[in-house]
Amino acid sequence: MHERIRDYYQAFNSGDREELLAMLADDVQHDINQGGTETGKLAFRAFLERMDRCYRETVEDLVIFSFADGTRAAAEFYIRGEYLATDEGLPEASGQTYHLRVGAFFDLRDGLITRVTNYYNLQRWLELVGA
């Protein structure tokens, strides 16, 4: 399970969205930071497409914590990013850069990720992009 989470972030950093999506269960639950919950790979794919359009991000200093029974894991890392295009409901993008601590939580079943929950300080992100 530890390896699954490491592989998830390696796929994220490499930009290989198909590899990343292959690690998710079809009914994956995605809890978006300070937002709603979306269910399913199609919704996760649409989220990734929006993210790739609006942001260029890399995970750095990844630390993974996992439960011995293989059902849950957590990660802490920094996201280094560039705000490329204005995301709906957020300030105007002009190439602002940011470096922000993030926490993520995962559920796993049969080797697939069934839940991804991300948390970061949105107020801090807004300060970093000059909002």
What's a concise summary of this model?
With 131 residues, the chain is an alpha+beta fold.
Structure, explained:
- The chain is an alpha+beta fold.
- The chain has a single domain (2-128), classed as Nuclear Transport Factor 2, Chain: A (Roll), CATH 3.10.450.50.
- The protein is 31% helix and 44% strand.
- The protein is built from 4 helices and 6 strands, in the order ααββαββββα.
- A 6-stranded mixed beta sheet has the order 2-1-6-5-4-3.
- It is globular.
- The N and C termini lie far apart (38 Å).
- The mean pLDDT is 95.
List the helices and strands and how they pair.
Elements (H helix, E strand, L loop, with lengths): L1 H13 L2 H6 L1 E8 L5 E3 L1 H14 E12 L5 E12 L13 E13 L2 E9 L1 H7 L3
Parallel strand pairs: 1-6
Antiparallel strand pairs: 1-2, 3-4, 4-5, 5-6
CATH fold group = Nuclear Transport Factor 2, Chain: A
Beta strand count: 6
User: Number of domains in the coordinates?
Assistant: 1
In terms of DSSP E residues, the strand content is 35-45%
The secondary-structure element order is HHEEHEEEEH
CATH first level: which class? Alpha Beta
The strand line-up of the biggest sheet is 2-1-6-5-4-3
Report how far the terminal alpha carbons are from each other: 38 Å
Mean pLDDT: 95
Rounded to an integer in angstroms, the radius of gyration calculated over CA atoms is 14 Å
Structural class: alpha+beta
- Work out the helicity level: 25-40%
Number of continuous helical runs: 4
The low-pLDDT segments are: none
Question: What overall geometry do the principal axes of the alpha carbons give?
Answer: globular
What summary fits the major beta sheet? 6 strands, mixed
